[in-house]
Amino acid sequence: MNVEPRSPLPADEVWERLDMRRALAARDLGTVFRLLQKHGTSQRTIAALTGMSSSEVYEVLRGRRVMAYEVLCRVADGFGVPRGYLGLAYDTDTASWLDQNLVPAQTRTDHEDDTRGHALLAYAAEVTVGTAGELSSEWASVPAAATPLPGQIGPEDVEQAEAVTAQLRHLDYRFGGGACRDAVAAHARWVDKLCELPSRPATQTQLLVAAADVHNLAGWTAFDVGLYNVAGRHLALALDFARQAKVPSLTANVLYRAGRVYLHRKRVGEALRFFQLGQLAAQDSGSRRTVAMLCANIAWTYAEMGDEAQAITHLNRAQDEFDRAGDADQEPWVQFFAELDVLALDGMTKLAMARHNDAYAAPARQALESSVTRRTDGMARSLAFEQGALATACLLTKDTQAALEYGGQALEQAHRLRSRRVTDRLAPLGRLAVGVADRGPNADAVRDLGLRIEQVLAS
């Protein structure tokens, strides 16, 4: 007997779409059901979850209005939607959303605005003359309220979205993901809403690119503070938007960041696969800078796997691709990858190989010293990564004084930056420092550095 496969239930995100929320608020079940079908929910599944017959669902889809309280409750409960979305119950979040998205500002009473205005003016006067006490509970918190959306998206809206993303990227690079992750996530939600609004085809494509870029950044900042599952969700959305926009260089960049998440977590097999897929997308894009970035990360991954030959091959290709790239790649998501990053990844790759072959410790130190001495304050997180790695290379080359200098600097940066990754990347230095066998004058100081790193890691 043939059994119809069960249609998937709609994802939670479907219920938060602007068109769905408006249809629910208007109790327009015909539109609600059509949106569900658009997202893969069959008519039979809708009937089963709402307690309606298939013919009733069909009639609703054809325009029949449903006003019965009991049926509306079954619809809400069957799909796990808050009853407030259909106006069947009251909750403050739904009320705020309705106020911002459905109730025109001019319908609010003048009396309400006047009352609040007088109260604010009275409090301002008290503050000015020095008689103000504690702020009243009415004013002590700001209720959730959505920013009004434009009626139609134009190029200027996309330009503003891109500019905000660029500033947030700069903050992440300088201060770490913890300094701006919430702001990036909020900006990503805003851009998502813009994507649902009408726009010309060219503008829509630009908007998809902007959405991919900001979710890429959101995934990166979540990764930086250790929220790996959240990072994965943002990166998946970034891949989807980049696919729709048909921008392979951006797809490659998202895959690079996904690979770094897995490399950081020592899941090197999965990291290698992400990087290899990214390399394919980068080659399709024609962006030599992106190809260089992927090759350098593939080299590091092979080094972590102990495959010296493949690591050296990909390091050489990364340098060759970067040398031939020039200034042709202007996309904001790849501009960060510069000559210093090629040097740093050369150093990280050789440092990983030094675990199996001591001969690579000195070349690793040389490459990392070159990158560290040229970093600026605006590159604080990358500087911290490289200082910690350089301190490790110095210990391997028996230069304890330099190890203490660079290790202390990396530890200081870890205290300043809002980045869990910076702290995690100090772990190899901490283990090596605690177990140092050197009996020289710096041995106790090196072990103390290792103990301080362990304390940071445990906090």
UniProtKB/TrEMBL annotation:
Q: Where is the HTH cro/C1-type domain?
A: 34-86
Q: Fetch the SUPFAM superfamilies from UniProt.
A: lambda repressor-like DNA-binding domains, TPR-like
Question: Superkingdom, according to UniProt?
Answer: Bacteria
Report the transmembrane regions from the record: none
Q: Which named protein is this?
A: Helix-turn-helix transcriptional regulator
- Species of the source: Kineosporia mesophila
